[in-house]
Structures are given as C-alpha cells and as structure tokens.
Write a structure and sequence with these properties.
The protein is α+β, with helices and mostly antiparallel strands. The chain folds into 2 domains: 5-64, Arc Repressor Mutant, subunit A (Orthogonal Bundle); 69-136, no CATH class. The chain is 53% helix and 17% strand. It has helices at 5-17, 22-29, 33-46, 81-89, 94-103, 105-119, 125-132, and strands at 20-21, 49-56, 59-64, 69-72, 76-79. The strands form 2 sheets. It has a 3-stranded antiparallel beta sheet. It has a two-stranded antiparallel ribbon with strand order 4-5. Strand 4 and strand 5 (76-79) form a beta hairpin. The longest helix is centred in the C-terminal third of the chain and has 15 residues, at 105-119. This is DUF7437 domain-containing protein. Residues 92-137 form the DUF7437 domain.
C-alpha cells in the first residue's frame, strides 16, 4: 500500500467508513469506477479489505481491518492505519507531498509518531524537534 498513495487513500476510506460500498468510495475519492474496483480487489488480495454478503443501494458492502506490521523499503517503518492514511494523503496534500519529496517515506513515520506523542501531551515541541533532528521553532502567541 505504501507504493501507491491512491491505494492507501482507498484503504483509509474503506476503513473509516466500514461497511461501505465501492460506489460510495468512488464518489468520496472522485475516482473512476474501474480504478475503484481495481484498488478494492488489490486490497482484498492483500487481505486488508473484504467484500461482505450485505448490500446497500444494490452495491456490495466492503469493510477493512486496521493494518499493522513492519514495512521495509528505504528503512523499516512500523505500519498502522495512521501511517497509511498520511501516506495516502500525500497525493492530495501539497505540504505532505513536499515533505515526502524532501525527506522521503523513511522520515514520514517518525514525524507522525513524534507529532502524535506531542498531541497526546507526551512530549514538547522541543522533544519532537530533537527526535526528528531538526531545530525547534519558537511559535508566536498568535499562531498557537
């Protein structure tokens, strides 16, 4: 999934909206019918989505299971739904795309993990900066 951002986006959509139809995914993601079903079938072959017996509006329902594991490419990355979702968003978010262009996939997981720790109150901005090996930036009061 981390080779194709659009595939990661489709997985995330099915996971977040499970159970859902591929027609609904197609509408939400603004992709063609053939692409939507190609990705759905690829995800099913990977064992992370499945077509259910139920139907909605004459379309089969699909569901996804949260993924976990280790993905190895440039480096080993602990894989989970958040990593997949952010990677998928790199194809539709300019800031994330720029980050990937400058730092690569290998830097994405540590940045996400550090940010989650920060948002959970487990570290400070300086702690995040230190973990990522970048200088801490002072935030003005108006930007908080």
């Amino acid at each position: 999934m981390l080779d194709t951002p659009a595939l990661a986006r489709i997985y995330t959509d099915v996971l977040v909206n499970s159970p859902t139809t591929i027609t609904a995914v197609r509408d939400r993601q603004d992709i063609s019918k053939s692409t939507a079903y190609k990705y759905a079938n690829t995800l099913a072959e990977l064992g992370v989505t499945e077509e259910l017996d139920g139907h909605k509006d004459r379309s089969s329902l699909w569901r996804a299971e949260p993924v976990s594991g280790i993905w190895t490419d440039e480096t080993s990355i602990k894989l989970g739904p958040v990593i997949v979702a952010v990677f998928g968003a790199t194809s539709v978010d300019d800031d994330l795309a720029l980050f990937m262009e400058r730092h690569g996939k290998a830097a994405l997981a540590p940045a996400i993990t550090a940010m989650i720790d920060y948002l959970n109150g487990e570290t400070t901005r300086r702690g995040v900066a230190a973990a990522l090996g970048v200088p801490a930036v002072k935030v003005s009061p108006s930007r908080r």
